[in-house]
Amino acid sequence: MLPRIPEIMRANDLIDLAFRRAAKESSLLTIRGVPRLIRTRKKEEKKVKVVARVIKKHLNKVLKAPRIEELPSFYQELVDIAIGIEKLKKSFGAVKWAVKKIDSLEKHYRYKIRTSQTEADASKYRREFYGRTASILRDISEEIDFLRDASRKLRSFPVVKDIFTIVIAGMPNVGKSTFLKAITTSKPKIESYPFTTKQILLGYFKRRYREYQVVDTPGLLDRPLEKRNPIEKQAILALKHLANVIIFIFDISETCGFTREEQLKVFKEISSLFKVKVIPVVNKADILDKEKIKEFEEKIGEKIFVCSALKKEGVENIIEEAIKE
């Protein structure tokens, strides 16, 4: 479930909209055969009612946004990194306070207008309501602006499904994206993290009527931990909630530009950081001899899988291992 906050208007824009709507609707109100004071009361009360309705309806839509604690852990982490959960809760609290306050003022001033003794008093009470309502909205204008920015950021969040997820890791140029394309049924979708320049690639495939999600994370799981900035480290924490299994791609031909030792260091870090199965995969088998592969398997100390993602050879065995219950 992707978190969303409905589009929210700026405080002054919402005030202007409500006042214009009130003027229009009250002008259409036809009242005949009653004293002038009663007509004035009804028109002024109508304005109060419309202003309160327009503002409360708009703000209540914002309050119906999904509760942060009800979101999947992956999205909770992203919200906290990109926006700040505590600040978001504070802003929602300010909007809730404004709705309650305006609701209370509406009841108070509609009663005062209905019981006013002169036309001047009826108009005065309506103006008082307008002024106090506008003041309330301007009091929370910073929170409204924060929620407007949060809404924009949430719309940029990557769209991921809450299904079994395979994360592909490995250093640059080892063939991660090629592997992703080899195992998914259509062109992978490119999504971006909302707080970095990093992107993720999402792909899907089906086995035995079940859908699986595959995630490639260029720029996040491709170098030693000490070389990542704080935001990237937090992004990795978010990714931890998504991964059911990790496929770590090695290029032991070193044509990727990184030594086997450098790749092994990242592999060990990922294995210790993520508490899920990490499958070591040697890619580019079409340019490797068997002795090199055997030597590397002995070095890594566990069973490795071998493939040529480019030629789609050996890929199926890896997928079966990844989705094995």
Q: Care to describe what's here?
A:
- 53% of the residues lie in helices and 12% in strands.
- The chain has 325 residues and is α/β, with parallel strands linked by helices.
- The chain folds into 2 domains: 11-155, Four Helix Bundle (Hemerythrin (Met), subunit A), CATH 1.20.120.1190; 165-322, 3-Layer(aba) Sandwich (Rossmann fold), CATH 3.40.50.
- The chain has a 7-stranded mixed sheet with strand order 2-3-4-1-5-6-7, sandwiched between helices.
- The longest helix has 30 residues, at 85-114.
Outline the biggest β-sheet.
7 strands, mixed
Helicity level, as a percent range?
A: 40-55%
- N- to C-terminal separation? 25 Å
- Give the overall shape: rod-shaped
Fold topology:
Blueprint: H1 11-27, H2 36-63, H3 73-82, H4 85-114, H5 119-139, H6 141-155, E1 165-169, H7 176-183, E2 189-192, E3 199-207, E4 210-216, H8 230-240, E5 245-250, H9 260-273, E6 277-282, H10 290-300, E7 305-306, H11 315-322
Parallel strand pairs: 1-4, 1-5, 5-6, 6-7
Antiparallel strand pairs: 2-3, 3-4
Helix pairs in contact: 1-2, 1-5, 2-4, 2-5, 3-8, 4-5, 4-6
Write a brief caption for the model.
It is built from eleven helices and seven strands. It has about 325 residues and is an alpha/beta fold.
Give a quick set of tags describing it:
325 residues; alpha/beta; Four Helix Bundle (Hemerythrin (Met), subunit A); Rossmann fold; 2 domains; seven-stranded mixed beta sheet; rod-shaped
